[in-house]
């Protein structure tokens, strides 16, 4: 019964995606996209590391922003997790984690300019909201029995330090390490708005047509992600954390007058600043909703639903690459490398590259979202498939895939897809900075025009939209009893 309900829901999502396709702009406008794609592929297979004289600096800054931002986010998130049961704390964390790091960065640029504080806070604040939720879940899932062995007079702090924290420690460490990988991706993407990380030099090399330099930067980034467990050792972590703040660079000095103007003028709605008062807010909000918010919401939803269904289809095609039921040792290793590349490439970075190859439309965004998220879900479902035990006379090939493995994995697969739904929506909005007419396009335009009040309203709408999708996804998971406990917290 539950399986049939899941299939009916999946078909409904596919139907909605097909309807969205009728209204989506998916054209390729460049004159010779395949020639450019060939040049890029040649650059990737013939990287010129010698020509990238800034490579070491770019890597160091990328690592420094990631370590400092994730460390501050983890520390703040842990403190918030201890009081996460309070409704105000939960609501505040939901809002700050629903706003993408690049939106935070665009706002902080107005205050601090191209200062390291902009990049650090852009990572730390949304990550604090994410850490708070996940840390609270991990602590709540610990076995309550050991706490009963403590004296009756033991307070909450003693209970935390001697029972809950030791039991949850390995899970906390594991998730924090995973968020560091996400932090590296976030740090690299911050380069597209001017921070001196890998994304900054990648955009510059791409604009100049130096595809061998692009290949070198991409390969270094993939190596950083793939070897994370080798060089992030517990004994070395304190050294990294102590060194990272000194490796961020100095950047431009902070103009505190900009901070003051931002807090006392820019964030105040224009009608109130101009003396119209509360009466002028209605028409101002009406125009903003009609001209920008509603078109942005429509395009964001269209792109999200198409990308969500394409992500699911791609994940179902990709998971056999890392499944022992379909691969041998050598092919499984190759498949693992393919999925590492797909899931390690940030959507924003991939969309930027595809935009240069295909021209401005929704197509680069859809493909970028599907590749990244499909790689993540395919990897996780492939790992899950390795725990399945098939009967001795189980068929092989396509029949094994269609009749033995996929039916048993479909529930966890659908759960993961719904977990990624809100994340895809969040990334869809931010891809508007690249020119796709989602909410991010209007937010970026408002900030470029120094209409911070409009940008803040649109960012709040984006956050509420993400929270709404997350609530709907939770409702559907609960209704269908879909769970994937081992990796459900992995999302970036």
TrEMBL record:
Q: How does it sit in the membrane?
A: Multi-pass membrane protein
Organism domain of life: Bacteria
Q: Is Membrane among this UniProt entry's keywords?
A: yes
According to the UniProt record, one GO cellular component term is:
plasma membrane
- Record keywords: Ligase included? no
Where would you find the membrane-spanning parts of this chain?
58-82, 102-125, 211-232, 239-256, 297-322, 423-443, 455-473
Where the protein is mainly located, per its record? membrane
User: Where does the protein end up?
Assistant: Cell membrane
Q: Which UniProt keywords apply?
A: Cell membrane, Membrane, Transmembrane, Transmembrane helix, Transport
Protein name (database record): Phosphonate transport system permease protein
């Amino acid at each position: 019964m539950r399986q049939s309900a899941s299939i009916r829901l999946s078909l409904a999502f596919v139907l909605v995606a097909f309807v969205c396709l009728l209204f989506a702009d998916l054209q390729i406008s460049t004159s010779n996209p395949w020639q450019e794609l060939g040049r890029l592929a040649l650059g990737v297979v013939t990287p010129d590391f010698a020509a990238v004289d800034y490579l070491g600096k770019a890597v160091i800054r990328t690592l420094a922003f990631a370590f400092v931002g994730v460390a501050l986010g983890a520390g703040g998130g842990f403190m918030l997790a201890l009081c996460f049961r309070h409704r105000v704390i939960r609501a505040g964390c939901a809002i700050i984690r629903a706003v993408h790091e690049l939106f935070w960065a665009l706002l902080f640029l107005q205050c601090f300019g191209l200062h390291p504080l902009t990049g650090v806070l852009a990572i730390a604040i949304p990550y604090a909201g994410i850490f708070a939720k996940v840390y609270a879940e991990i602590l709540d899932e610990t076995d309550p029995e050991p706490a009963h062995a403590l004296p009756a007079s033991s307070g909450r702090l003693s209970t935390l330090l001697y029972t809950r924290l030791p039991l949850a420690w390995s899970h906390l460490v594991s998730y924090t390490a995973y968020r560091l990988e996400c932090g590296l991706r976030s740090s690299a993407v911050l380069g597209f708005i001017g921070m001196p990380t890998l994304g900054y030099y990648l955009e510059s090399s791409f604009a100049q047509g130096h595809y061998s330099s692009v290949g070198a930067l991409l390969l270094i980034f993939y190596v950083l992600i793939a070897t994370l467990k080798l060089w992030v050792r517990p004994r070395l972590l304190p050294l990294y954390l102590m060194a990272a703040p000194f490796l961020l660079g100095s950047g431009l000095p902070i103009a505190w007058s900009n901070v003051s103007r931002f807090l006392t003028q820019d964030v105040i709605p224009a009608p109130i600043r101009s003396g119209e008062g509360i009466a002028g807010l209605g028409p101002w909000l009406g125009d903003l909703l009609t001209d920008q918010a509603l078109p942005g919401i429509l395009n964001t939803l269209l792109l999200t639903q198409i990308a969500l269904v394409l992500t699911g289809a791609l994940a179902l095609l990709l998971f056999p690459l890392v499944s022992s039921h379909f691969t041998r040792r050598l092919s499984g290793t190759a498949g693992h490398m393919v999925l590492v590349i797909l899931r390690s490439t940030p959507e924003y970075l991939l969309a930027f590259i595809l935009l240069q190859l295909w021209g401005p439309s929704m197509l680069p965004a859809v493909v970028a979202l599907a590749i990244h998220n499909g790689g993540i879900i395919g990897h996780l479902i492939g790992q899950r498939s390795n725990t399945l035990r098939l009967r001795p006379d189980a068929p092989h090939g396509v029949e094994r895939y269609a009749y033995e493995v996929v039916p048993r994995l479909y529930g966890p697969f659908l759960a993961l897809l719904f977990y990624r739904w809100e994340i895809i929506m969040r990334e869809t909005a931010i891809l508007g900075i690249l020119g796709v007419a989602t909410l991010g396009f209007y937010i970026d335009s408002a900030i470029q025009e120094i209409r911070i009040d409009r940008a803040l309203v649109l960012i709040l709408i984006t956050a509420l939209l993400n929270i709404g999708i997350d609530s709907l996804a939770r409702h559907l998971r609960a209704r269908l009893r879909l769970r994937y406990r081992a990796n459900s917290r992995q999302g970036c």
